[in-house]
Design a protein that fits this description.
Layout lengths: L5 H14 L25 H10 L14 E6 L2 E6 L2 H10 L4 E3 L1 H11 L8 H11 L5 H4 L3 H17 L4 E2 H17 L8 H16 L19 H24 L6 H7 L11 H15 L1 H15 L2 H14 L6 H5 L2 H13 L5 E6 L3 E3 L2 E3 L4 E5 H5 L41 H18 E5 L7 E4 L1 E4 L4 E6 L1
Parallel strand pairs: 2-8
Antiparallel strand pairs: 1-2, 3-5, 4-12, 5-8, 6-7, 9-12, 10-11
The chain binds protoporphyrin IX containing FE (HEM).
Length: about 475
């Protein structure tokens, strides 16, 4: 375990002095994991483009970790970078109607996801959200616990048997893909799992890579040009999904899984069922939004746990107590420290570290005027490590999410976004991540690879550059 730096200790003392509070009895040595190097100088638009292509995280200015809003010019308009809870609430909740998702994101995602919930707007989005929301209620998703647990157990075996060290990110990606695929198509027949999986990887990879031309403002209705490879992959995915949808319709019983729910869903206004195309795009949306994010959250969690023996032991003690019998929803509720660890991992490495929105009408952010066409970058990464909001912000301290210390402001921890468009799958993801982490630590032990050069890069999600090698042994 890495010793806690003197600078962090000083920061604690300054914080305690500033807040007038005595520091409660806490652990004295906290692990300080790798952090993105912030930008400490002004850069030209061309250089911004270069940095964005390499790693969009490197455009976050150092000042954003101390200030809560910074405004700069952007091709005749302004770009506002925000990192404070009040600013987040203003954009995502209070002035929700003045903002739309950034045209770039829509141009990148629409060719893949169509007009499904993640990319839809206005009335179309509202109706989809209303209809889909019940499918993600806790009591509905609890029926997926056995699928998640089975995949977790298989993943334990895979991790234990793999040659050491293990690159865990790809293993976890396979695992979360397997969960979402089974939750959607529990009874799939003639479904080329490997082929569909490979196609989705191609599509997501192409969608997630920034191009220089992406910096040129374009209308959102103009889709980004897709490569032939990605077009072919899209065809493979669509054909496979449609075959499953049609097979289900033909057999007369929609089924009890997520696909069954989509097949039964009716538009609240027209009473009409969803079309095959709508269902296909929603299926793709759940796969795109739901598997890599969860895998990334778990990847960073394991990195942190591998580097913090004390936390690993506490997790293990909790898991051993809970996993004794069947994994019921009641047993799940007792995995509270496990959840704290996952939340703290997502604070340090939010899987979606920056979101963009564009103003569709004049508005304001906490008193700062915003013109129509201005862009806002919601820097969750900077919010989560903000110097004025968190004690020792760059250190791993799962107890900060304990019942007595959790942030009081809902907009201080934004891993799942906020406002009406917050993540619909948050409970699903937390349930899945908690089952995986508990199963992992109860059967396996994790240690870091000393020579590994771990660094976070943003490629839609915040991934470790070159993967995450860890040493894993059976207990
Ligand atoms: C740790 C895992 C996850 C993280 C960190 C995450 C994060 C997010 C964030 C930040 C947003 C807001 C995007 C925005 O406002 O522009 C979002 C939206 C969304 N997420 Fe998740 N997500 C996760 C897992 C899931 C899962 C498992 C599913 C589905 C099975 C899912 C489905 C969605 C959908 C459909 C939306 C769009 C909601 C809307 O626009 O109304 N996510 N997610």
């Amino acid at each position: 375990m890495q010793p806690r730096g003197q600078e962090a200790a000083m920061a604690d003392i300054r914080h305690a002095e500033a807040t007038g509070r005595d520091r409660p009895e806490r652990r004295t040595a906290l692990f300080e994991p790798v952090a993105c190097v912030p930008l400490d100088r002004p850069v030209s638009l061309i250089e911004t483009g270069r940095l964005m292509r390499e790693n969009p995280m490197s455009i976050l200015p150092e000042a954003l970790f101390r200030e809560t809003i910074l405004t700069g010019p952007y091709i005749g308009k302004s770009v506002h970078e925000i990192s404070g809870p009040a600013e987040m609430r203003s954009v995502l909740q209070e002035n929700f109607h003045a903002w739309r998702k950034s045209p770039l994101i829509l141009r990148m995602l629409r060719p893949i996801l169509g007009d499904a919930i993640l990319t839809a707007h206005g009335e179309s989005w509202r109706r989809q959200r209303m209809s889909l929301q019940p499918a993600f209620l806790r009591r509905r998703i609890e029926r997926f616990i056995p699928i998640m647990d089975e995949v977790a157990a298989a993943t334990v075996e895979r991790l234990a048997r793999a040659p050491q060290p293990v690159e865990v990110q790809s293993v976890l990606n396979d695992a979360t893909f397997s969960v979402i695929e089974q939750v959607l198509f529990s009874d799939a027949v003639e479904f080329d799992r490997a082929g569909v999986r490979a196609a989705i990887e191609v599509i997501l990879e192409e969608t997630g890579t920034m191009r220089m031309s992406d910096l040129v403002p374009m209308p959102e209705w103009m889709p980004r040009i897709m490569s032939l490879r990605a077009l072919r992959a899209r065809h493979v995915f669509r054909k496979a999904a449609l075959a499953q949808i049609r097979r289900r319709r033909a057999q007369g019983d929609p089924g009890d899984d997520l696909l069954g729910l989509l097949l039964k869903m009716r538009d609240e206004k027209t009473g009409q069922k969803l079309s095959d195309t709508d269902i296909r795009d929603t299926v793709m949306t759940f796969i795109a939004a739901g598997h890599e994010t969860t895998a990334i959250a778990l990847t960073w969690t394991l990195y942190l746990v591998a580097n913090d023996g004390e936390t690993q032991e506490r997790l293990r003690a909790e898991a051993d107590g809970v996993l004794d019998g069947a994994l019921t929803p009641e047993a799940m509720a007792r995995l509270s420290f496990t959840r704290q660890v996952i939340e703290e991992a997502m604070r340090l490495y939010p899987p979606a570290p920056i979101l963009g929105r564009r103003a569709v009408e004049p508005t304001e952010i906490c008193g700062r005027p915003v013109k129509k066409g201005d862009v806002v970058l919601l820097a969750f990464y900077a919010l989560h490590r903000h110097r004025t909001l968190w004690e020792h912000p760059d250190h791993f301290d799962p107890d900060r999410f304990g019942p007595d210390r959790r942030p009081q402001d809902r907009y201080q921890f934004m891993a799942f976004g906020g406002g009406p468009r917050a993540c619909i799958g948050a409970s699903f993801a937390m349930m899945e991540a908690a089952i995986f982490l508990a199963r992992f630590v109860s059967r396996l032990s994790f240690t870091p690879v000393e020579e590994a050069d771990v660094y976070p890069v943003m490629q839609v999600t915040l991934r470790p550059r070159g993967g995450m090698p860890l040493r894993i042994a059976r207990r």
